[in-house]
Amino acid sequence: MVQFEDGMRQPCRTAMNLALHVGDLCITRHKNAHDYGRVIALHDQPAAEDNEGRVPVVIRRATLQDQAKAVENAVHGRMAVDTCRRRIAEVEGDMHLLHVRYNFDRTLLIVSFSAEERIDFRDLIKVLGNDLAVHIEMRQVGVRDAARRTGGMGPCGRVLCCHQWLRKFEAINVKMAKTQNVSLSTSSISGMCGRLKCCMRYEFDTYRALSRNVPENGALVETPEGRGVVSERNVIKSTLTVQLDDHRVQRFATDSVRTLREPRGKRGKQNKHENSDS
């Protein structure tokens, strides 16, 4: 796996007898064009046959001359940013320029942008191609990928996970927030990208396993001090807050409490499931 200057990652094959290590700077070839990147992962399994040349090939490790040319290409890319911004401002639609880079040969300018809706950028490609005298490739990315490339600080005070180390976005849903007893307010569950926080996925499996045998809120339970209804549960500390029949509110260890009746909503789901099974 090779990562390029704009953060894009691309699975690649290696040329015959080429030894690579994670962190190596390298030159790739794809359809007679070359690019410059860094090896970020190695895979032991042999690559599948690619008769149509759709997968880039790492042809060599980058030399000092290659690295100098890559720096020069980066300078030219920064010079092209103003032109791209000016032309994008003329386009109807909400487009946000993220990154501009040349490939290693400087025969292609890759322009990455984000937008809420699909953008017809065919005319923009023609205009930019005439302005910069180079072939243009426009890449629209989603808001999560935009946050990954832009970076920033999360509400936790740390650098965004997606920018610093997260390599793959996993599916996130509101159920994960409910299982972890997180407030469902938008400010609590939304990340800097406006989507559900990736970090809600990290501990979800642990919370789900720990809460499997813990009474739900609203369950009728038997405690060492009498019957009551669960008003709050803390699966990490293994405690339940119970409102007793005499209106006292007490906290108990989960293993000292016995469930007498599940909450009404959960019973309804169970009955529906039983009826569907029968």
Give the helices and strands, then pairings:
Elements: E1 2-4, E2 9-10, E3 13-14, E4 25-30, E5 33-39, E6 57-61, H1 64-89, E7 96-102, E8 108-114, H2 122-132, E9 135-141, H3 143-150, H4 161-164, H5 174-179, H6 186-189, H7 204-210, E10 220-223, E11 226-234, E12 239-244, E13 249-253, E14 258-261, H8 264-277
Parallel strand pairs: 3-6, 8-9
Antiparallel strand pairs: 1-2, 1-5, 4-5, 4-6, 7-8, 10-11, 10-14, 11-12, 12-13
Helix pairs in contact: 1-2
Please give a structural write-up.
This protein has 278 residues and is of the alpha+beta class. The chain folds into four domains: 2-62, no CATH class; 68-141, GMP Synthetase, Chain A, domain 3 (2-Layer Sandwich); 147-209, no CATH class; 215-277, SH3 type barrels. It is 29% helix and 27% strand. The chain is built from eight helices and 14 strands. The strands form three sheets. Strands 2-1-5-4-6-3 form a six-stranded mixed β-sheet, with helices on one face. Strand 1 (2-4) and strand 2 form a beta hairpin. The longest helix is centred in the first third of the chain and has 26 residues, at 64-89. The radius of gyration is 27 Å and the shape is elongated. The model is unreliable at 267-278 (pLDDT under 50).
